[in-house]
Write a structure and sequence with these properties.
Blueprint (H helix, E strand, L loop, with lengths): L11 H23 L29 H21 L5 H10 L1
Helix pairs in contact: 1-2
Length: 100
């Protein structure tokens, strides 16, 4: 029997697939919004950055370690935070702003 992730009980392969979909649809855009520079993959360019994450590369161009990092972040934000800190979820924050 294959190990499952804590909290979500997901299979790792399912988490990788869902994180990849999230990355291509939302994550890459969030990185672009957070950083004003567009980093280059060309080592001779002054704006070179070795990270595919920082360059907002598509999922298929990320290294195995980068895909692992994105999956870990995605799982934490979508399952661990809501389960352990429900007041920090976007819906809870929005409701809190309306109430106060």
């Amino acid at each position: 029997m294959q190990e499952r992730l804590p909290v979500s009980n997901m299979l790792p392969a399912d988490a990788l697939k869902q994180a990849g979909n999230w990355w291509n649809k939302y994550g890459r855009q969030k990185v672009k919004e957070e950083f004003t520079l567009e980093f280059s993959s060309d080592p001779t360019n002054d704006l070179y950055h070795p990270s595919g994450i920082m360059r907002s590369e598509p999922w298929g161009k990320l290294t195995q370690m980068e895909r692992f990092a994105v999956t870990k972040h995605w799982h934490h934000e979508h399952f661990v935070v809501p389960a352990t800190e429900p007041k920090k979820t976007p819906i809870a924050q929005a409701i809190n702003e309306i109430i106060h």
